[in-house]
């Protein structure tokens, strides 16, 4: 029997194919998805991994068997699937393992309007049904099986994004894009078509074996080729997308990475200007610059836990216009509160092309502090190490401690957040300070206790 506890995560399904799951299970997931969402129609898409078409088709068969009409949109990015779910008002399923290695695959599911499906919003119920049916046999078919039809939404997706950000009047820009053999190679040419952008395409061939580098731009090793190409060609900007192209990372004209917090602040300022104010969500490890810029732009900043389910929940609760995370996930009210790296990229391109200076100068006003980046430490006992760090700072004067997500300690000119990984024996540390020297001192202080 398959151990679904190993592949059904907090927000999605993710595992090795065929060792941990296969098309037989995918068909049961399709049936369970329809049963839990009570959907009469759904939309299904998939990325370029070798196992994706078969898994997506099996999911569709399971859904149709229980009476739901299935719209297959074929190859797509995750945010393209969210677009389909939002614009067609249908529950959706995206087959992708994002930036994981080639042998992995997974399912990201949402309700109509791209509302997320996680452990507390249906995923646990789906897991339980699949477990039951895997043991006792599939549920009986509906009296009337659903239809399966194909539909291409790529052009509509591109049109929607270009309507949200106007680039027609910007100066011409030379843009290097590294798609990492992922779905950015599918979406970027259509989205950029007709815009004043000279596109230099790196690794646009769709290849789920990732022959050039992992499709995970969060790892600095995977943006080296992009940085080199930007420097060699004198490009204005470089963009890197992850495997399913829902995250976008930016490098400036010098090939230097731009902090996702700086991108969050820049896009927040533009969205606030567009909407005449509003609420912006940021998680507890984004830079101090984000709430500062939001306040300066006349908006209200709301701080949340790390993770897209918390961001999306807070956006729905507050009616926020935008949300950003350190991991380069960017969420827009104009995009059904879903995350889309492509829309964030268009905002950055519009801001850069709307003035004459280089990107490094443009983002400098949004990148105000010295940050450590996320530092992982393997520990034997997460709780004991967390307690030791808290004890080391609890008695000091002038510090503020909170437990919104792990432990955050804030001093007059620095802060750090330490939080446990949900899936590995790791503690994740982020430190920020007003200068590099202070940041380094606080970072080393905390790591000494963590790694004792």
| Overall tally of structural domains | 4
| Number of continuous helical runs | 14
The number of strands is 22
CATH topology of the largest domain: Alpha-D-Glucose-1,6-Bisphosphate, Chain A, domain 3
Spatial gap, N to C terminus: 41 Å
List unreliable stretches of 5+ residues.
none
Mean pLDDT rating: 96
Rounded to an integer in angstroms, the radius of gyration calculated over CA atoms is 22 Å
The portion of residues assigned to helices is 25-40%
CATH superfamily of the largest domain: Alpha-D-Glucose-1,6-Bisphosphate, subunit A, domain 3
Question: How would you sum up this structure, described in words?
Answer:
This protein has 452 residues and is α/β, with parallel strands linked by helices. The protein folds into 4 domains: 4-152, Alpha-D-Glucose-1,6-Bisphosphate, Chain A, domain 3 (3-Layer(aba) Sandwich), CATH 3.40.120; 156-254, Alpha-D-Glucose-1,6-Bisphosphate, Chain A, domain 3 (3-Layer(aba) Sandwich), CATH 3.40.120; 260-364, Alpha-D-Glucose-1,6-Bisphosphate, Chain A, domain 3 (3-Layer(aba) Sandwich); 370-450, Alpha-D-phosphohexomutase, C-terminal domain (TATA-Binding Protein, 2-Layer Sandwich). Helix content is 37%, strand content 22%. It has 14 helices and 22 strands. The strands form 4 sheets. Strands 1, 2, 3, 4, 5, 6 and 7 form a 7-stranded mixed beta sheet that branches. Strands 17, 18, 19, 20, 21 and 22 form a 6-stranded antiparallel beta sheet that branches. α1 (23-37) crosses α4 (123-136), α5 (154-164) crosses α6 and α8 runs parallel beside α9. The model has no long low-confidence stretch (mean pLDDT 96). This is Phosphomannomutase/phosphoglucomutase. Its cofactor is Mg(2+). Keywords: Isomerase, Magnesium, Metal-binding, Phosphoprotein. Residues 374-447 form the Alpha-D-phosphohexomutase C-terminal domain. One of its GO terms (biological process) is carbohydrate metabolic process.
